[in-house]
Amino acid sequence: MKLTILGSSSATPYLDRHPSSQVLNVNDQLYLIDCGEGTLFRLNNFRIKKNKIKAIFISHLHGDHYYGLMGLLTTMSMHEKSDELIIVSPPRLKDIIDLQCEISKTVIRFPIRYIETSMEYSEVYKDSNITVHTVPLCHKIDTCGFIFDKNFPTKRILKEKIEELKLSPHEVSQIISQGFSVKDGQNVTIECISEDNVTKKTYAYLTDTRVDDSYQIYIQNLDLLYHESTFLHADIKRAEETKHSTAKEAAEVAKAVAPKKLLIGHFSARYIDLMPLLHEAQNIFPNTELAIEGLTFEF
Ligand SMILES: [Zn+2]
Questions:
Q1: Distance, CA 230 to ligand 1 centroid (Å)?
Q2: Catalytic residue flag (residue 64)
Q3: Alpha carbon 122 to chain centroid distance?
Q4: Which of 39, 87, 181, 186 could crosslink 68 through cysteines, CB 3.0-4.6 Å?
């Protein structure tokens, strides 16, 4: 899985920081997560093929998370997208898009299927690549985070089979690297010493939200966690008023649920320098990075 950050800013953009959007690449299929104003330009800047987007996930209907959608959809249509696009969002986004199309007499020439989220933990999307669950968050309007799971088949090596067949470490590594080894004139294959297993990679995208305990049970065993960090903890009052989180709080969530890595983003335009936010989070959860425009994280 490969995650590229298209926007790192909260409601007010600042210079080269833009409203929320990310693109997740799984087996060369693209999934767009939020679509703040100007997402189309960021996709162009980073040479990401917009017509490869299979589904779009919108966390909530504050403008900085979906104002880029209309422009993106009409451009996809002009670029002759023909296959179905799925849009997962809170209710009424379809009404907003349909009204704009009706008034501007715009025809989107590819099918769109809308899937509505609700304020509960549930599976909202599944294809051959990924399964996506919603996580209800704590914001000013109904808002869901998303958990993206990719399952892929692997083999689990069985220690007892290795002992039974009296295989040396060299023979085992040969079997793993080339699929078989010859032992006493017999072929020993990977199937002889392993069983089928499923490995999971998991990414959680959580924005916008106050930190509370309610969603932590859903975000255990993550490979990557994105948690909004709109404010420094010195501005906690503003975070409480606007139902956002501080960098310290995001890191405390990470410390509690122990993902392999934490990304922080959705930064307020009041901070010109983002390093204090990074340091505040790293003091609590060292493996934290800023999720800023153009960075790609593979996991
Ligand atoms: Zn919001």
A1: 10
A2: yes
A3: 16
A4: 39
Cβ neighbours around 222 below 10 Å, total? 23
**Cβ contact 5:295 at 8 Å:** yes
Q: Model pTM? A: 0.88
Ligand 1 geometric centre to CA of 26 (Å): 27
Q: Say how many Å lie between the CA of residue 177 and the centre of ligand 1.
A: 49
| d(CA 42, ligand 1 centre) in Å | 21
2-298 under CATH 3.60.15.10, yes or no: yes
| Amino acid making up residue 64 | D
Going from N- to C-terminal start, the domains of the chain cover 2-298
Backbone angle region of 53, left / alpha / beta, with phi > 0 → left and psi within -120 to 50 → alpha? beta
Indicate which residue of 34, 64, 208, 223 is catalytic. Answer: 64
In the numeric block, which tokens belong to residue 59? Answer: 């966390």
Tens of pLDDT, residue by residue over 73-105, are: 999 999 989 999 999 999 999 999 999 999 999
Q: Do residues 200 and 222 touch, judged by C-beta distance below 8 A?
A: no
Length of the chain measured in residues: 299
